């Protein structure tokens, strides 16, 4: 009988981000437009959430079209042929259709003919989940290039007469290409958790197998987003605070070792309160919810993409991302971006995938070694 020999990897494999992109609807909707729809005001929305405008899909746009645009940009930034992608993971809770998933449609659209394709539904925490899963597959040696996309179009499920929900959400997609490398970089710490006891706090009750659509469920509004805002607000602050602390401790790093915090962009008050509690200064927190609102699984990858393109992140920087949302679910990932360099900020994003050894490299590598060492000693 033929026996399989045990393959042992001598060199550990890490996953680095080598490409990034975003896809956004054309139409921007300002707070003032809601004043004609519901009893609200630009001032209320700004002061209670930090949101000023959001993007809303039109008739020819959808989760898949946005995800495809983000994926194409990420592949271009990575200078990677789509046929070299091994797997596409789309984090979404709003796929174009309940079946099939969004990922195979993106796979076909971008011509990733040798890729597997799946969706992950962890709502607003989806991108962190997908990133950690993709990292594990690369570390296992079974995959080399994985496209990780966060994409949602929650505007399709919003009740435009419910002022406590409709003003919050926007549509969009963000994508990264994760690639295998032998250099210690990438994921240094992660926490993926859930508390299903809070499932009813944020949900779309109808449309699934428990409550298939009927004229009655539609009339009752069961296909809209239902949310207990204040309860989710408290949960979000607690999770963002505790999970950030947990993951830093897990990686053996201090707040000062983190170059940029990219929290899920749900509400500026949630972010401010948690960052104050953890002791993270405002200038280390990336915020773009004023322009996009809460884009669910897309919020972190869109923010990552804009942080890189605006020079807020240098290759070798440590970024801490934390997503939280329906489930309840939350996911936190501490990720070193690319390989350290001291290339001028304007050029860094173009060179993220290249191994350029510099002065910034020393600090970044020391942190990487500490984090990898702390991971190994658990
Ligand atoms: O990705 C995770 C998804 N969800 C979230 O992150 C949402 C988390 N929750 C929140 O962000 C906040 O709870 C909201 C922004 C949704 C609401 O802010 P809040 O400060 O918690 O307000 P509230 O729900 O306690 O409501 C205060 C008042 C209420 O009126 P009364 O009962 O005091 O007369 C609401 O009816 O504000 C009213 N209100 C509004 N007023 C004007 C609720 N929404 C609006 C609105 N415009 N859009």
Secondary structure topology:
Blueprint: E1 14-23, E2 27-30, H1 31-34, H2 42-49, E3 53-56, H3 63-78, E4 87-91, H4 102-110, E5 116-120, H5 126-140, E6 145-153, H6 163-166, E7 171-181, E8 186-194, E9 202-203, H7 215-219, E10 226-227, H8 229-251, E11 260-263, H9 268-278, H10 289-292, H11 299-309, E12 318-325, E13 329-336, H12 345-348, H13 359-376
Parallel strand pairs: 4-5, 4-6, 11-12
Antiparallel strand pairs: 1-7, 2-3, 6-7, 8-13, 9-10, 12-13
Describe this structure in words.
It is a single chain. The chain has 378 residues and is an alpha/beta fold. It has two domains: 14-184, Thiolase/Chalcone synthase (Peroxisomal Thiolase, Chain A, domain 1, 3-Layer(aba) Sandwich), CATH 3.40.47; 187-376, Peroxisomal Thiolase, Chain A, domain 1 (3-Layer(aba) Sandwich). The chain contains 13 helices and 13 strands. It has helices at 31-34, 42-49, 63-78, 102-110, 126-140, 163-166, 215-219, 229-251, 268-278, 289-292, 299-309, 345-348, 359-376; strands at residues 14-23, 27-30, 53-56, 87-91, 116-120, 145-153, 171-181, 186-194, 202-203, 226-227, 260-263, 318-325, 329-336. The strands form four sheets. The protein has a five-stranded mixed β-sheet, sandwiched between helices. Strand 12 (318-325) and strand 13 (329-336) form a beta hairpin. The longest helix is centred in the middle third of the chain and has 23 residues, at 229-251. The model is unreliable at 341-359 (pLDDT under 50). It binds oxa(dethia)-CoA.
């Amino acid at each position: 009988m033929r026996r399989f020999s045990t393959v042992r990897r001598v060199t550990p494999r890490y996953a680095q981000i080598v490409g990034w992109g975003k896809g956004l609807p054309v139409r921007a909707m300002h707070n003032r437009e809601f004043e004609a729809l519901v009893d609200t005001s630009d001032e209320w929305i700004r002061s209670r959430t930090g949101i000023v405008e959001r993007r809303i899909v039109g008739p020819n746009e959808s989760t898949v079209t946005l995800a495809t645009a983000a994926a194409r940009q990420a592949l271009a930034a990575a200078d990677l042929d789509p046929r070299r992608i091994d797997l596409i993971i789309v984090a979404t809770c709003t796929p174009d259709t309940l079946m099939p998933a969004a990922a195979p449609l993106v796979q076909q659209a971008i011509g990733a003919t040798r890729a597997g394709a799946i969706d992950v539904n962890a709502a607003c925490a989806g991108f962190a989940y997908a990133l950690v899963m993709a990292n594990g597959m690369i570390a296992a040696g079974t995959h080399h290039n994985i496209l990780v996309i966060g994409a949602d179009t929650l505007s399709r499920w919003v009740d435009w007469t419910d002022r406590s929900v409709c003003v919050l959400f926007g549509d969009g997609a963000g994508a990264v290409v994760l690639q295998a490398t032998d250099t210690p970089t990438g994921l240094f710490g992660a926490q993926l958790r859930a508390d299903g006891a809070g499932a009813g706090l944020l949900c779309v009750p109808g449309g699934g197998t428990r409550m298939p659509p009927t004229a009655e469920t539609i009339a009752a509004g069961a296909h809209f987003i239902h949310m207990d805002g204040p309860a989710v607000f408290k949960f979000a602050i607690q999770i963002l605070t505790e999970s950030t602390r947990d993951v830093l401790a897990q990686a053996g790093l201090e707040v000062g070792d983190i170059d940029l915090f990219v929290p899920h962009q749900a509400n500026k008050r949630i972010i401010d309160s948690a960052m104050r509690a953890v002791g993270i200064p405002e200038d280390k927190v990336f915020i773009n919810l004023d322009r996009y609102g809460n884009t669910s699984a897309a919020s972190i990858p869109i923010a990552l993409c804009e942080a890189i393109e605006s020079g807020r992140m240098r290759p070798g920087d440590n970024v801490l991302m934390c997503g939280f949302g329906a489930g309840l679910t939350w996911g936190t990932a501490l990720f070193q971006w690319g390989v350290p360099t001291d290339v001028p900020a304007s050029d860094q994003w173009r060179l993220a995938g290249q191994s350029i050894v510099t002065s910034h490299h020393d600090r970044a590598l020391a942190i990487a070694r500490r984090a990898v060492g702390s991971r190994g000693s658990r």
